[in-house]
Design brief:
The protein is of the alpha/beta class. Helix content is 40%, strand content 27%. It contains 5 helices and 5 strands, in the order E-H-E-E-H-E-H-E-H-H. It has a 5-stranded mixed sheet. The chain is globular and about 30 Å long. It comes from Enterococcus hulanensis.
Length: 104
């Protein structure tokens, strides 16, 4: 399974990167290919290419703010292949949300 994700929180510091780590760790444990874009105090890092988004099986939006360049994700959202979750929740329960993403 190929997973792409975006993590972002209002201050763009701790939760952004903790959510990134939680997603990457859980996906790697399951043998999934994963790429995580962060939108934090440093701006956009590890920006997802449109091709990667299009090829992904699922999109996880672990965000508490509006995503920059969000139009890139509209097709995945319209197809029902996206999961939106609060960054704090995915940090606490990564397995639960990756399980949910698998069902999309």
């Amino acid at each position: 399974m190929k997973v792409v994700a975006v993590t972002a929180c209002p201050t763009g510091i701790a939760h952004t990167y903790m959510a990134q780590e939680a997603i990457e760790k859980e996906c790697k444990k399951r043998g999934y290919e994963v790429q995580v874009e962060t939108q934090g105090s440093m701006g956009i890092e590890n920006e997802l290419e449109q091709e990667d988004i299009d090829q992904a099986d699922v999109l996880i939006l672990a965000v508490a703010i509006d995503v920059e360049n969000g139009e890139r994700f509209e097709e995945k959202i319209d197809l029902g292949k996206s999961l939106s979750v609060d960054p704090g929740d995915i940090i606490k329960y990564p397995a639960k949300y990756i399980d949910e993403a698998e069902k999309l």
